Amino acid sequence: MAGNPRILVVDQDFESRAELQKGLVRSRFIVVGGVGYGAEALSLAAELRPQVILVGVEEPMARALQTIESLTELLPDSPIIAYSRLTDAESARRAVLAGARDYLTRPLKIEDVIRAVEMALSQQERRRAIRSGEPMPYARTGGMIITVFGAKGGIGKTTICTNLATALVGLNAGSVVIVDVDTVFGDAAMVLDVPVESSLVDVTSRIDELDRETISRYLVRHSSGVRILPAPFEPTDWRNISPESLDKTLSLLAQTHDFVIIDSPATFTDLVAVALEKASVVLLVTSLDITSIKDTTTALKLLRNGNMSADKIKLTVNHATGANSVNEDDIRKVLHQEVFWSIPHDLEVSACLQRGMPVVIDKPASRVSQSIVDLAAQLAGMDAVPVEGNGRAYGNYSNDASASILRKLLRR
C-alpha cells in the first residue's frame, strides 16, 4: 500500500467514531476527520476528498444508507467500507447495494480494518487503470511469483519456502511449485526428501522446446502436492543457466501454477536479479542476529537503488534461535522498514527437517506452523481462523472472512 491513505470516518456515535479514529492513527493512517451522517458528512467529504470512507451502520439503517448513497455519488473514486454490529446477511446486502465496497462486523479488529482498506484501494486502482487503459504495475497474467531472499545464509529461507508452499496447498489456495535457484546450497528437494532425476538446468537448456504440458515432466512431486524444480546437481552446472532462460522458465511455470516460490541464495547474481524482478512479492528474510541485520541493511539499499517498489518488499523476521540480541523494534529503526511478518522460534522445526517433513504437516498445532499458515493465507488473500485443538492448521482456513461477510454475499 503506497503512502498512508487519507480516511474519513462517518459515524453518528461520537464514542464509536473516536475509538476507530484512534486505532487508525496508531496504525499510521491519516484520519482527515470524523463526522456524523447527512449534509455534514457530504460537505466535509467534498472539502477533504478522502481516499477511503468508513461508515458506521446501525439500526435504524435508513439515514446511514442514504449517506452512503450520497457519498458514492459525490466521490465515486473513494471506496466506502461499512461497519456494523448487525451481522445478518440482509443488513450487509443493503449496505452493499447502497454503495459500500465491504462490510465489517463489530467489534472491529484493527487488522481487519487495515486489510479491508488495502483491498479497497487495490481494487480501486485496478478499476482506474482499466478505465484509462494503463497497464497495472506488477499485474498478474499468471500465477503469483514469490521470491524468498535473504542477504545471509543459514537464516531459514529454504525452510520458509518449503513450509509456505505446503501451507498454500493445504489451504486449497491453488497449485504450487518451488524453483530452487540457490546456487550455493540448493537443498529444497533434500529438505522435502524427494527423489531427484532432473533439475533446473535440464529445463532451461530446453526451455524453447517446452510448453505447459511438457515442462511438468521435469517437476518432482512431494506427497503434500507441492511440485519442485530442483537445483542442478553439480555446482558447475549453474554456468549453463542464462538469465534469459530462467526468465522464460519462470514465466512458463507461472502459466501453469497459481504460486511459484523461488528459493534464492544469499547473494546478488544475474539469476537472482531475474528472480527479484519477476517476483510479485519479495519476502526479504532476516534473523535477529547483528550480522544478518547488517547484511539486510545492504540488501535493502541495493533493492531500493534498483528502483524496486517498496510495496513489493516484505520484510520477514525469522526467529531462527531462541536467543536474540535485538528485537523487532530495533530492526524497524535500523532498516527503516516495517516488519511484514514474524516467524517464531520453535525447536520442532529442526526435528521435522531431520524427518524430511514440513513442520506445517508434522506439527500443525505448533506456533511456527500457525505463523507460516497465517503467512500463506495473507499472501493468498484468504482470511484466517485460529487453530483449535490439534487439528490440521490449514484445515481451518477459508475464503470466507468471519469479520467480512461481503464475500459470502457476492457468491450467492
Question: How many beta-strand elements?
Answer: 13
Spatial strand sequence of the major β-sheet: 8-9-7-10-6-11-12-13
What is the CATH H-level superfamily of the largest domain?
P-loop containing nucleotide triphosphate hydrolases
Which of globular, elongated, flat, extended, rod-shaped describes the shape? elongated
Secondary-structure arrangement, i.e. CATH architecture of the largest domain: 3-Layer(aba) Sandwich
Helical amount among residues, as a percent range? 40-55%
What does this structure look like?
- This protein has 412 residues and is of the alpha/beta class.
- It has two domains: 6-132, Rossmann fold (3-Layer(aba) Sandwich); 144-398, Rossmann fold.
- Helices cover 42% and strands 15% of the residues.
- Helix 2 (39-48) runs parallel beside helix 3 (62-74), helix 6 (157-170) packs across helix 15 (367-380) and helix 9 (243-256) packs parallel to helix 10 (270-278).
- The longest helix is centred in the N-terminal third of the chain and has 23 residues, at 110-132.
Describe the protein's topology.
Elements: E1 6-10, H1 14-26, E2 30-35, H2 39-48, E3 52-56, H3 62-74, E4 80-84, H4 89-98, E5 102-105, H5 110-132, E6 144-149, H6 157-170, E7 176-180, H7 188-191, H8 200-205, E8 220-221, E9 227-229, H9 243-256, E10 259-263, H10 270-278, E11 281-286, H11 290-305, E12 313-318, H12 328-335, E13 339-343, H13 348-355, H14 359-362, H15 367-380, H16 406-410
Parallel strand pairs: 1-2, 1-3, 3-4, 4-5, 6-10, 6-11, 7-9, 7-10, 11-12, 12-13
Antiparallel strand pairs: 8-9
Helix pairs in contact: 2-3, 6-15, 9-10
